[in-house]
Amino acid sequence: MEKSKNAADNFKKGLNCSQCVLSEFSEELGLSKEVALKIASGFGGGICQGEVCGAVTGAVMVLNLKYGNSKADDKEAKDKIYEVVRAFSKKFTDIHGSIICSDLLGIDLKQEENRKIARDKGLFKEKCPAFIVSATDILHDL
């Protein structure tokens, strides 16, 4: 799919995984690409510490833009966003075994020395494009 390819290409150009996913859908959901890139910038690498995968957080932001509630009493929208986020997370986990960045990469990214090891071993370049493609494809299917 074109969005998946574009998102993976943007990762190779230096954007983080969250930026790649959110920016690929942002304009069609009423958010400029520039603002999307800024919003997603701190979510790469599992919020910079190996927590929830940036491709997943980018996807959740896309789902929020499409289905999220903007009023506290909009129970229908709140129920819908929780439903689609759970469905997305299940599909991603079914494919990759987890939504946690450190689990996906096989290294604890909370430790600075491990982040350096991950970079030196090329783990991000080797593994993250597949997570970006999956997240983008799952969004397309949802």
Q: Can I get a quick summary?
A:
The chain contains 9 helices and no strands. The chain has helices spanning 2-12, 17-26, 33-40, 44-50, 54-67, 75-96, 101-105, 112-121, 123-141.
Distinctive features:
142 residues; 9 helices; globular
Description:
This protein has 142 residues and is mainly α. The chain has one domain. The chain has nine helices and no strands. Helix 1 packs antiparallel against helix 9 (123-141) and helix 2 (17-26) packs parallel to helix 9. It is globular, with a radius of gyration of 15 Å. The relative contact order is 0.18. The mean pLDDT is 92.
Helix content: over 70%
Distance between the termini: 14 Å
Low-pLDDT sequence parts: none
**Order of helix and strand elements from N to C terminus:** HHHHHHHHH
**Number of continuous helical runs:** 9
Spell out the blueprint of helices and strands.
Elements: H1 2-12, H2 17-26, H3 33-40, H4 44-50, H5 54-67, H6 75-96, H7 101-105, H8 112-121, H9 123-141
Helix pairs in contact: 1-2, 1-9, 2-3, 2-5, 2-9, 5-6, 5-9, 6-9
